[in-house]
Amino acid sequence: MSIDFDPIEEAARQWQARGWGAVDAMSAATTLTRAHQVVLDRINKALKPQRLTFSRYEALVLLTFSRRGALPLGKMAERLMVHSTSITNTIDLLERDGYVRRVPSTEDRRIVLAEITPAGSAAVELATKALVDIEFGMPDLTPQIASGLADAAVIAGAKPRRRASRR
Predict the structure, then answer these.
(1) Mean per-residue pLDDT for 34-48?
(2) What mean pLDDT comes out for the span 1-23?
(3) Which burial class, exposed, middle or buried, applies to 59 when counting CB atoms under 10 A from its CB (0-12, 13-18, 19+)?
(4) Which sequence spans correspond to the domains of the chain?
């Protein structure tokens, strides 16, 4: 289905006509949400052959980047900016597929680590190639647009502000 007008622009016009305020913020939030849906759909389609979603892929990449291939679930939740319940569910699914295993911490028996398996490492490699092939669902991304998106993420609180470098 194709329409001959921008629905977000039309929503902004209607919004303003009603005097609801924060028109630019509403338009930006709606645009980001729609873009997120489109990009996430493209990414998840590329990841499907590996039985991954983007959230599961992110968890595997985080474990891949760790020094030992293992991290406490709480640290994973913090770094991925998700609730601890979400990381528990993600690890449950990755464990079910044989991509991670839960292991006790050798330093603190109360802590459970998620550890990537050889199958998980292989899945990360294949999934990463698939995502690079589709340019993470954003083939027309320019450095200027990427910078603007990073700025928008900071404003939304989804990305830490850049700190001035110390010399």
Answers:
(1) 95
(2) 91
(3) buried
(4) 1-50, 51-135
Residue 167 pLDDT > 80: no
- CA distances (Å), origin 60, targets 1, 24, 55, 99: 36, 37, 9, 8
> Which single residue is written with the structure tokens 């990414």?
43
CATH number assigned to the domain covering 51-135: 1.10.10.10
The stretch 118-145 carries a mean pLDDT of: 95
The Cα 35–Cα 56 span in angstroms is: 20
Alpha-carbon gap, residue 43 to 53, rounded angstroms: 8
Share of the chain above pLDDT 70, in %: 95
How many CA atoms within 13 Å lie on the side-chain side of 165?
1
